[in-house]
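[audit] Reproducing an earlier prediction to check determinism. Same input, same settings, fresh worker. If the tokens differ from the archived copy the diff job will pick it up downstream; this log only records the rerun itself.
[audit] input (769 residues):
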Amino acid sequence: MASTEKQKKSASSRTKVRPAGFPTREQVMDFIASSDQPAGKREIAKAFGLKGAEKIALKALLKDMADEGLIDIGPARAFHKMGGVPKVTVLRIVDVDDTTLIATPERWEAEGQPAPRLRVVERGKRGALTIGDRILARTEEAGRGWVAHPMKKLAKASEELLGVVEEGEGGKLWLRPVDKRIRRDTPISDAGTAKKGDLVLAEPVGRPPRITARVTDILGDPFAPRSFSLIAIHKHGIPHVFSERVEEEAVSASGIALHEEKREDLRHLPIVAIDPVDARDHDDAVWAAPDDDPANAGGYKAIVAIADVSYYVRPGSALDREARKRGNSVYFPDLVVPMLPHQLSSDMCSLRAGEDRAAMACHLVLDAAGKVKSWRFSRAVIRVAAVLAYEDAQAAIDGTREEPLLEDALKPLWGCWVLLRKARDKREPLALDLPERRVVLDEFGKIVSVAVRERLDAHMLIEDYMIAANVAAAKALEQKKAPVMYRVHEPPSRDKLVALKDYLATFDIEFALGQVVKPSTFNRLIERVGEAEEKPQIMEQILRSQTQAYYTPQNMGHFGLALGSYAHFTSPIRRYSDLLVHRSLVGAYGLELPAPKGGTIPDRTSLSGEDMENMGRVGEMISQHERRAMEAERETIDRYVAAFLAAHVGDLVEARITGVQSFGFFATVEGLGGDGLVPVSTLGDERFFYDEAGRALEGVESGDRYTVGQRLQLRLVEADPINGALRFELPDALPQRPSFRKDRARPGIKRGRPANIRHIGAKRGKHRR
């Protein structure tokens, strides 16, 4: 009925007489379609010289056209063709199709029609945009779709809020954020069916300062098993669900014939996989034996066999597009978000013991000095003799565990590794021995322990074999003048070195800026520090001075490993970069195999023309995805650490100061990690001077000094598993109860100084201020 009335009104208005010279529908449509700026009523009136009563008639005409489905109204009250987008509008990048960014209008009000997906055409420097970015863009129809030409990158709008519903005074609901950088809770204006304690997604509503949250999705119990990982997945927008099409293609691909007769048969060799005890997939295995060539006395032959993922994940397939979009697998303590469906990642492409598997084999010949004399690559079929945990392999070598493969497999591997270590020691890569935390869960997902992962010879052995194979892959492709996706690590910038110099000066350690900086420069520095108390934080500061490694088709060497050419080859199950290197090797060395029958899976496994053309863009994308994964993994471990420590609130813990700011200092629990704040308001009634150069807080009257790297006992007063935040106080501070809205030190409480805090005298304190 309402629709009929609307049509009658529309017909009635069309019968009205328009003023002379008034534009027709077609003229208005042409103007809207060709305008290079948002075309609102004012712009249309100006274009046709309309005044007074003509403007009123224009308003009626535009309403009629909207009712008839000819035009829509978009942002800034601008009109555009129905089903289309304004000529200039704000878009949000939401996806990647192969290497093309996909964007949708930030506001879409066409009732009953899905928002269009526009292909973003970047000009000039590529890689400046990524998923989640907002752009002002000029749009146009091209073929059967729309394209967007970015004009300006805009500040990110308020994203979805991820948090836990909490109840305040009077039953009012608040959203407590899971991101510890957000220090304010948000009042909830619309909770829907969410209850107190639920982990939810919400959208911000209103304008500052009156922002509220409207719950859009309920994710469940934040303390349930896997919730900490779920928080990170949603917060960082990590793709974690495979479409039916991708899953189906994985099943089809896993059924492709191996073509054993066309592969090098290595099934007779005792190849072993050595991995973490909790590894979900096994994409590399190794073998070594003394070289029987008299001309290479004292040398070794070695094989690094890698899952032949490029055989199953082919250019142009749905599997390939999904893997590129993910860039890498993401590893959480309780689950893995794989780059490839489980049908491949943990089954057909996983090198299981006793099962025939397709592999890309890197054959190495080392001389007695550990130098790699030659290499070759082949597509092979292997049968892994055993999958061993690092700890078990080490125990077998140490003689504390029986292992049937000790003589045939492990001892030759260790013998060859002695040579690899010789070569490694000679080139002197950066040697930062920083601890890695490991969260151990039981079968129900509850935390058993959080500890520093032990560093064994077995770990370093596998690392050195992998590095040797990665170098061989890069150099082999260079020899063939084939495309390479390099793993690049550039030297530290001068700004970072100046900051390091200033930091070391606070320990009375000199660092000359004029020297040629090599990895060995930092190694000598660490040796000078010896086993001093400040060694861990100096190593951390050296790490912070380094640039981030990234992927690119342009070779700029790997500073940290002291290598001129380096590419990732050894983990194609979990890294897209390695998959591209495998494809390039297939093409360069003529390793293509017969095409699958049936025609549903692409024929080729080598690099496609599109792969080659977009290497730079893909390198930028997967570098961004790697950083996203690292941040998500680190935050999740922080949440598990906070959950583990929640049972120890009120206890004294051994801690080390990791950062100092004017509002307090941050400390981490020794051996566990997880940063927590000691607010300056809890340090006492006196004023504290913030010594920025010395990275310290210093009492103006007492001279009490809190510096980065300092070890001290602190009392844990709060551990929040939701956002991974900890809060500490000095041992003799009166206990504080965390308030709902904001933590404040109790007035009138004088804080003392722990016995291990250095007193430097009030005079010096006043002088420095």
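[audit] rerun output stored. Observation attached for the diff report: Residues 615-645 form the longest helix (31 residues).
[audit] end
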